[in-house]
Amino acid sequence: MNKENIFSMASESVINSDDKLALEALEMAKSKNIDLMELLSGGFSAGIREMGEKYASGEVFVPELLMAARIMKIITAEIEELMETSDMPKKAKLVIGTVKGDVHDIGKGIVCSIVKSNGIEVYDLGREVPPQTFIDKAEEVGADFIGSSALLTTTMVNQKEIERLLVEQGLKDKYKTLVGGAPATKRWAEKIGAYAYCEDASDTVETILKWVNEREALKEMV
Ligand code: B12
């Protein structure tokens, strides 16, 4: 079985909510030394995205989405465990969560796994997180980044609220804010004054590591 077939198998397992097939695809990918992060974002995520299209066209409903989401959760956890990097020196700290009113946390979960596997310390606040909680946690742990995920056009305003609170509390320059989720865009990030919009998990890693490298270069200069 080639890489393409394994990716289709992964996608199909999410569409059919088939946990056995999902784990089989994972085993197969492992035996072929396929990059598991790629399998997660290219294979399994393709399945959940297709479910989104089916939902939008009225072909499937919330219960089917929930079953597909369960497969994503199982697989993300499995892959994260395989990528365990607890002894890696930590390069930066990220506080992350899904904003208040929003329960979509699959994408955030993927971001957490991939970011962690690149040596970034992650504090995951879960979902339906009030704006002030992001800031309180960042203050508590001395974070570098605050990342918020929003999947609904009605909840993305909470990303703006985080920016407003940071300004109000004189903390705007202390943290780099990252916004993500399907309705977020580069334009939205600019409009609300966020540090960056990240399209996906690898974009998030790139953005954080670029900042880490710039900080290192600055340290060397002084
Ligand atoms: C699965 C799903 C659900 C599941 C969520 C389960 C879970 N635990 O997450 C359930 C069934 C619970 C659900 C519920 C609802 N959903 Co829903 N759901 C989806 C669906 C199909 C997939 C979302 C997903 O997981 N995508 C896959 C991941 C991998 O992609 P992602 O989230 O975009 O994440 C990537 C990037 O965005 C980025 N990223 C994400 N977060 C972050 C954060 C940071 C900091 C950074 C840097 C990057 C980043 O990196 C990720 C990985 O690459 C989408 C369709 C879609 N196209 O998004 C609809 C969708 C988001 N849902 C929708 C709706 C309407 C709802 C409901 C209101 C339905 C209802 N009538 O009840 C409820 C809302 C509940 C609530 N209050 O939140 C609409 C939203 C419409 C809108 N414009 O607002 C969508 C778009 C479906 C549609 N086409 O209509 N949903």
UniProtKB/TrEMBL annotation:
Residues 91-222 form the B12-binding domain. One of its GO terms (cellular component) is cytosol. InterPro entries: Cbl-bd_cap, Cobalamin-bd, Cobalamin-bd_sf, Met_Synthase/Corrinoid, Meth_synthase_dom. The keyword Metal-binding applies. PROSITE patterns: B12_BINDING, B12_BINDING_NTER. The keyword Metal-binding applies. GO terms for molecular function: cobalamin binding; metal ion binding; methionine synthase activity. One of its GO terms (biological process) is homocysteine metabolic process. Residues 1-91 form the B12-binding N-terminal domain. It comes from the Bacteria. Belongs to the methylamine corrinoid protein family. This is Trimethylamine corrinoid protein. It comes from Dethiosulfatibacter aminovorans DSM 17477.
